[in-house]
């Protein structure tokens, strides 16, 4: 299910391109690592921690045919590239078409991180999208051919696998425990330079940049550039609390506004993908929007209370149980719903076939209904 409101096209396209393009001319990626034994004391450097984590962060190189490279781009991304070239008289740095290898294939690089000793690797979905070949390079220079286990474009998370045993790895931490102002460390492969470390703080939490229905980004001022996509964002205990995914930038380079997928969401997706390569999500079949100020005042609601159903799709679970346009959803399984994003997630975390109780308001009367969810699959609502 998706909110009806959209961000300005220019903002959404800028973010998408910053996440997509990579250092060698085509794509962009990032990586992640294993747990640290102890956090540094306040006021100290991160020398020991970085030395421990670095072996778990890998460089990801991908190649794809020129047709696949162009075919994987959205209309908005193609339009952005064309407008950039017209305005500045040069191609966008790192755009598809810049990094050609033998036979005209497109090449790009990004980052990933190892999460198991037997070679399970996490990166961004956009890093490996459409790839014909994926190569992982370890810190010691060892190159390994990677298999794509699965990817989830909705959260921009992908899982790879390489042959190995006793590989260094990192663990996910608790992103729910993050606080604004907390120190964080980013590692990745900016501009194809190889493992690079930057530090900063958590600038904001719960950012929605309208890149997808599950936006809940950690914002950080740690430098993240093209090629950092898919890399880990660590806390001071050496735990991965985010997967670096996108930047907001007028230039394509870091201006201190980077976004990471929270580890609590990423870890769930990784576990689902590792199981069978597919993420299963429940589906209700409605379009939703925030409760308007005038409606909220008329109902005596506090600001941000409830989500209005704007449209019910035919032949869906929502229609089957009688939900109607104008109904205001108050909770799912007893958990309050305050924003369209809350409702989208509450439904999506359930498996197809699950039964959920939805409490809603219709003409001032509170009602409840039990819905058997459908399969969201690749649907947008």
Describe this structure as you would to a colleague:
By secondary structure, the protein is of the alpha+beta class. The protein folds into two domains: 275 residues, Thrombin, subunit H, CATH 2.40.10; 94 residues, Roll (Pdz3 Domain). Strands 1, 16, 17, 18, 19, 20 and 21 form a seven-stranded mixed sheet that branches. A hairpin with a 2-residue loop joins β18 and β19. The chain is elongated. The termini are close together. The N terminus is likely disordered. GO terms for molecular function: serine-type endopeptidase activity. It comes from Roseivivax halotolerans. InterPro entries: Chloro_Bact_Ser_Proteases (IPR051201), PDZ (IPR001478), PDZ_sf (IPR036034), Peptidase_S1_PA (IPR009003), Peptidase_S1C (IPR001940). Pfam families: PDZ_2, Trypsin_2.
Helix content: 10-25%
Q: Specify Rg, calculated over alpha carbons.
A: 21 Å
CATH architectural label of the largest domain: Beta Barrel
* Residue runs with pLDDT of under 50 for 5 or more positions: 1-21, 23-34, 84-100
> Overall mean pLDDT score?
80
Number of helices: 9
* Structural category: alpha+beta
Number of domains: 2
* CATH class type of the largest domain: Mainly Beta
Question: From the structure provided, what is the oligomeric state, counting identical versus distinct chains?
Answer: single chain
- Assign the CATH topology of the largest domain: Thrombin, subunit H
Domain PDZ: 285-364
Signal peptide: 1-18
Protein name: Serine protease Do
Keywords: Hydrolase, Protease, Signal
């Amino acid at each position: 299910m998706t909110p009806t409101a959209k961000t300005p096209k220019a903002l959404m396209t800028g973010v998408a391109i910053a996440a997509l393009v990579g250092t060698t001319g085509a794509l962009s990626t990032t990586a992640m690592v294993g747990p640290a034994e102890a956090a540094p004391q306040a006021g100290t450097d991160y020398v020991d921690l970085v030395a421990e984590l670095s072996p778990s962060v890998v460089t990801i190189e991908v190649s794809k045919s020129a047709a696949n490279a162009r075919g994987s781009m959205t209309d908005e991304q193609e339009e952005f590239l064309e407008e950039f070239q017209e305005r500045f008289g040069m191609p966008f740095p790192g755009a598809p078409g810049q990094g050609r290898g033998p036979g005209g294939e497109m090449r790009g690089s990004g980052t990933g991180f190892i999460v198991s000793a037997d070679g399970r690797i996490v990166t961004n979905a956009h890093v490996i999208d459409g790839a014909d070949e994926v190569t992982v390079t370890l810190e010691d220079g060892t190159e390994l051919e990677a298999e794509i286990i699965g990817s989830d474009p909705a959260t921009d998370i992908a899982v790879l696998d390489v042959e190995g045993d006793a590989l260094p790895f990192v663990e996910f931490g608790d992103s729910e425990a993050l606080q604004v102002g907390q120190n964080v460390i980013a590692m990745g492969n900016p501009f194809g330079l190889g493992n690079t470390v930057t530090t900063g703080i958590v600038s904001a939490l719960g950012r929605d940049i309208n890149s997808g229905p599950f936006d809940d980004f950690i914002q950080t001022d740690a430098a993240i550039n093209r090629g950092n996509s898919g890399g880990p964002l660590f806390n001071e205990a050496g735990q991965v609390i985010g997967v670096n995914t996108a930047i907001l930038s007028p230039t394509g380079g870091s201006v201190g506004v980077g976004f990471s997928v929270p580890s609590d969401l990423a870890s769930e997706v990784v576990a689902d993908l590792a199981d069978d390569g597919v993420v299963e999500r429940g589906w209700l079949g409605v379009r939703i929007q925030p409760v308007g100020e005038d409606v909220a005042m008329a109902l005596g609601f506090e600001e941000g209370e409830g989500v209005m159903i704007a449209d019910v799709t035919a032949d869906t679970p929502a229609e089957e149980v009688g939900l109607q346009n104008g109904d205001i959803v108050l909770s799912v399984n007893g958990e309050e719903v305050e924003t369209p994003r809350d409702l989208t997630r509450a439904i999506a975390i359930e498996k197809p076939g699950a039964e959920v109780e939805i409490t809603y308001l219709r003409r001032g009367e509170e009602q409840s209904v039990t819905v058997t969810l459908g399969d969201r699959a690749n649907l947008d609502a």
